[in-house]
Design brief:
This protein has about 180 residues and is an alpha/beta fold. Helix content is about 30%, strand content about 30%. A hairpin with a 2-residue loop joins β9 (about 160-165) and β10.
Amino acid sequence: IETEFWIDDIIDMNAINVGVENGIVTFTGVVDNILTKDRMIEIAEGVRGVRAIVNTIEVDPAVMRSDNEIRDAVHNALLEDPATDLYEITTTVNDGVVALEGTVQSWAEKQLVANVAKGIKGVHEIQNNVTIDYESTRSDYEITQDIEGRLANDVQVDDYLIDVSVEDGQVKLTGTVGSL
């Protein structure tokens, strides 16, 4: 994990500590933005043998902004991003904690809205309260095919070791993986 962190341009290894015991990874320290904290988790989850992650990393932005400045910056970023400009998302900010409200049409859109907000300087935390309102109901078969296709195209997953079952829109994955 530390080797991956050292070669990553985003992570400052001088500001964090990594501990591992019995496959459980512990992060401590301070980073200046949420995207760095998320990147650390993403890297660790991809390492074989990692069973769990205890993340006590604190986000202390290098740039201090008022809540109004953060709210305006998030609002503008959502409007300027070509993928999120049509979403009707409202933003409230309290001590650098951004709460997102509104409705989108997919889980991926909900994650995208949060990622745009995470990139704003001064944001300490995101509360993603955006709801998903699917335009149409998809059959269990369609959902199963979509998930199996995504697993088959993911180089980090051996899709033959994962079984997908969907019942009334609820997805259940069973099988074996080598990392989180």
